Amino acid sequence: MALTALTMVLTPGPNMIYLVSRSISQGRRAGLISLAGTGLGFIAYMLMANLGLAVVFVAVPWLFIGLKAAGVAYLAYLAWQTLRPSGRGVFEIRDLARDSNWRLFRMGLITNLLNPKVAIMYVTVIPQFIDPQRGHPLLQGLTLGLLQITVSVTINALIVIAAGSIASFLAHRPSWAIWQRRTTGFLLGAVALLLAFEVPDRAHI
Predict the structure, then answer these.
(1) Are the CB atoms for 191 and 3 separated by under 8 Å?
(2) pLDDT tens digits, residue range 151-175?
(3) How far, in Å, CA of 153 to CA of 9, rounded?
(4) C-alpha gyration radius of the chain
(5) Are the beta carbons of 69 and 198 closer than 8 angstroms?
(6) Is 199 exposed, middle or buried (0-12, 13-18, 19+ CB in 10 A)?
């Protein structure tokens, strides 16, 4: 689960683009304030998804299997989006207007709540790692959700702090940006393949 959370957070998406753009244009403090709003969005998703999924898995067991399969498909899709030649670099320098602390926090929250990558993470990817035979699905879901939040917030904080330096570095070394996208894409593809082999086994639960 930690590896999946790591590859997901390293895959460019709305959250990373917003946090990096704010850090580069308005400074690290602005990026960290935005990250606080993003973190609150993660908590909201975790609670809503797990409270609903705990009931659904008991009432409709086959849906559990379907969600696992959908998660595999989504990881494969992310791998393709990352590997395709037209993929856009996250660390491109952009000029943005300065925002207040409250607006930074609010936009971080809204960006995360409207982020389909996060929604699908909690609805299809995290259930890949829930095994009803190992305990209550709700407790497992909350534990895995907290692990995902810890990994995501930690990595995003490091990216926010280093965003300016990374942007300057990649601006002069375009081949490194391509290498980063390819590495992330291959990792996502590998995780998708590993989880795909587990789906048939769990179909007998």
Answers:
(1) yes
(2) 999 999 998 888 877 766 666 676 7
(3) 9
(4) 18
(5) no
(6) middle
Distant-in-sequence, close-in-space partners of 26: CB < 8 Å, separation ≥ 6: 96, 98, 99, 104
Q: Which two tokens stand for residue 166?
A: 């990374």
105-139: pLDDT as tens digits: 998 998 888 776 777 778 777 877 877 778 787 78
Paired tokens of 98: 């300065």
Helix (H), strand (E), coil (C) string for 153-202: HHHHHHHHHHHHHHHHHHHCCHHHHHHHHHHHHHHHHHHHHHHHHHHHHH
Longest dimension (CA), the chain: 55
Distance CA 202, CA 88 (A): 36
- pTM of structure: 0.67
Exposed/middle/buried for 138, CB within 10 Å: 0-12, 13-18, 19+? middle
